[in-house]
Every structure is written in structure tokens, then in C-alpha cells.
Amino acid sequence: MNERTLSPGAGAPGERDAVDPELASLPEPPRAERKATLLLLATTALASLAMVALLARDAAYAFTASHVTDLGDLRVAPAGAFVANEYARGVGMLGGAGAIRFERSFESDSYRVAPVAGRPDVWVELRVPDGVDPERYVPPTSFAGRLVRFDAAGPRHRGLVGAVASLTGQTVPNGAWLLVDGESPDGARWVVALVAMFAVFAAWNVITIGRIVRKVS
């Protein structure tokens, strides 16, 4: 009579097909929590990428040549002499019509933005030191800083055009220029670090999403 020998790891057919009760008692994978985690990671990644895009122009200014472009008298400087995101210098008297003062969070100094007298399409932003009476503040007539389009000056100037219109009734012309006095390329290095942080954060979220999907699938 022939005998069939079973291997040590093999069992009877019924035993092999049986379901382990301990495995069966385990809870199902938390699909709802997984979806919520993936959604949160995706939202955070998109928000980080949006911040990278929003601050890209500010970060690019940090790599601008430190040589100052002299525009001369801002009231009569030709339009072709103005270049966006450039470190520029100019002189001129500031007009009172349309000028406003504003503050930024976590900063003790205040700011003043005003058009160049006789040149409504060129504006200057000045920092007013803390402790100086705004009513007695006399603005300088020489400025050096970042030159940008007023409507593309970045998140730190968001809503400024509307504020000028609502507070003074004066409309900032489309395509107007803004010279941010005192803002040099070296002073914009912190924006580069901020953009790098958001980029790394976005990449980390995308990689984490890939790992979660790969493990569960």
C-alpha cells in the first residue's frame, strides 16, 4: 500500500482552508481616516505650492544685481527707464493727494505711500520710524529700493491699491510703478529661505501621500 507523506508545513485540506479567528477579529483598515489624512496632505501641499508661486517674484529680487540703477528725477524719467523688480534710485517731491499711512502686523514702524508730485503713475513707499509724529513727518526727496508694478508688489502690499481708493478717492492708474524705499536685494534673502521652506514642505507632503497609497494598495 502506498503512503503519501505530508510535508512538515502542510496540513489537511480543511486546515489549510480554515480562517484564522484572530485574523478575522482584526478591525478593517480605517479607510475614512486614511482619506482624511490624504486630503489634508494634498491640501497642505497645494497651499505650500501656492505660497511658492506667490513669493517667487519677491525671492527673485534677492538675486538682482546690487548695483543701483539711477532714474534721476522721477517726475520726468522716461517710462522705458523703469524695469520691474529692479534695484533703483530716484529723486522727487511726493504729493499729498492720495497719500496714506498704514501699519503691518508685528512691526513697530509705520509706512507711508504717496505718488510723486506731477507723476501719478509713480508712487513711493516710505518707512516711518516708530515715535515720529505722522502729522509732522517730512518725507525725503531721495529714494532707493525695489521698483515694481503697484499691482504686482507681492503679498505685503495686497489690498493697498483698494485702500488708496477708499481712503482718498484717488485711483491708482493701471500699470503704475511703486518704488519701495530701503528694500535692497540683500534684505530680501529671508524670502528665499521662506520659499525654500514651503517647497520642502510641499515635497514632503507629496512623498508622504505616495508612501501611504503604496502601503495600503
Output the keywords.
35% helix, elongated, 2 domains, single chain, seven-stranded mixed sheet, alpha/beta, 217 residues
Task: Provide a brief overview of the structure.
With 217 residues, the chain is α/β, with parallel strands linked by helices. It has 5 helices and 7 strands.
Explain this structure to me?
This protein is α/β, with parallel strands linked by helices and 217 residues long. The chain folds into 2 domains: 30-63 and 186-217; 64-184. Helix content is 35%, strand content 21%. The chain is built from 5 helices and 7 strands. It has helices spanning 13-17, 21-24, 31-61, 160-168, 189-216; strands at residues 69-73, 86-91, 100-103, 110-116, 119-128, 142-149, 177-181. The chain has a 7-stranded mixed beta sheet with strand order 1-2-6-7-5-4-3, covered by helices on one side. A hairpin with a 2-residue loop joins strand 4 and strand 5 (119-128). Helix 3 (31-61) runs antiparallel to helix 5. The protein is elongated, with a radius of gyration of 31 Å. The model has no long low-confidence stretch (mean pLDDT 85).
